[in-house]
């Protein structure tokens, strides 16, 4: 994440649930004091759309500054890697090939940290319609990861190991690629509120329980954010995607070891 600096007296943030769109977890960033500080007083006024800071416009400026002015292939040759921007991409994404059959993808995301500590990233709403184009996504990644690690440190638990296995399984199974790290982390945090045994010996049982919990959340069409329950982490999935994910996970319940073997690799 790449921090951006906004003038405090020129911009303010509005929670998505306080707008007509009513989308918790997303925010609008509004331009203020135009009567005293007219347009062009702020560097970011060039990215203003309809009185709000547009994450899409910020990404376009960011892409021109970073992707357009840096010779990534030359940097890659110095490091003995192949580095190239991914096109097309909703964000600035670099593909790093460090072995013949191994690649790493790195996302560069503009980040706003508001006065109250809220972190907003310029990652568009997945089902972005016209009315969603100015929405900034609230990021809980740092707090979620810290909470998960803190719980493991308290009891020597396997939550992070369970997360790694689940992420690998979702990455290697095309039918589960829509489940992201934040959703899996929150599912584990919510499960931790009900389940106390996270010893290493219980990893397989907790993995199976995680699959069941995800099926339940998909059936309900809602996965609450463990840190901010108003936020539904499934709000960007279509009904068809929810059905397909639920079916795949339900089938996996009959042979969860296969997912674990897949995640562990050959």
Automatic annotation (TrEMBL):
Subcellular location: Mitochondrion outer membrane
Record domain Mab-21-like HhH/H2TH-like: where: 158-245
Pfam families assigned to the protein according to its UniProt record, in alphabetical order: Mab-21_C (PF20266), MID51-like_C (PF21297)
Residue ranges of domain Mitochondrial dynamics protein MID51-like C-terminal in the record: 1-144
Domain of life: Eukaryota
Keywords assigned: Membrane, Mitochondrion, Mitochondrion outer membrane, Transmembrane, Transmembrane helix
Database matches in PANTHER family: MITOCHONDRIAL DYNAMICS PROTEIN MID51, MITOCHONDRIAL DYNAMICS PROTEINS 49/51 FAMILY MEMBER
Full protein name: MID51
């Amino acid at each position: 994440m790449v921090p951006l600096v906004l003038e405090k007296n020129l911009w303010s943030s509005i929670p998505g649930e306080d707008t007509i769109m009513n989308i918790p977890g997303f925010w609008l960033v509004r331009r203020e004091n135009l009567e005293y500080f007219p347009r062009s007083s702020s560097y970011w006024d060039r990215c203003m759309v309809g009185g709000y800071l547009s994450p899409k416009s910020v990404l376009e400026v960011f892409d021109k500054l970073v992707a357009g002015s840096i010779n990534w292939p030359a940097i890659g040759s110095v490091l003995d890697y192949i580095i190239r921007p991914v096109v097309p991409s909703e964000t600035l994404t670099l593909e790093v090939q460090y072995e013949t059959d191994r690649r790493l993808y790195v996302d560069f995301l503009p980040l706003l940290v508001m006065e109250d500590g809220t972190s907003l990233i310029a990652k568009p709403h997945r089902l972005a319609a016209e009315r969603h184009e100015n929405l900034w996504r609230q990021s809980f990644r740092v707090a979620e990861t810290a909470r998960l690690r803190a719980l493991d440190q308290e009891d020597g638990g396997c939550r992070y190991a369970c997360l790694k296995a689940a992420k690998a399984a979702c990455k290697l199974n095309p039918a589960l690629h829509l489940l992201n790290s934040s959703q899996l982390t929150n599912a584990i945090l919510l499960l931790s509120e009900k389940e106390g045994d996270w010893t290493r010996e219980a990893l397989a049982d907790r993995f199976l329980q995680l699959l069941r919990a995800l099926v339940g959340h998909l059936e309900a069409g809602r996965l609450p954010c463990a840190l901010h329950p108003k936020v539904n982490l499934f709000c960007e999935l279509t009904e068809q995607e929810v059905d397909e994910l639920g079916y795949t996970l339900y089938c996996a319940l009959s042979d969860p070891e296969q997912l674990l073997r897949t995640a562990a690799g050959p």
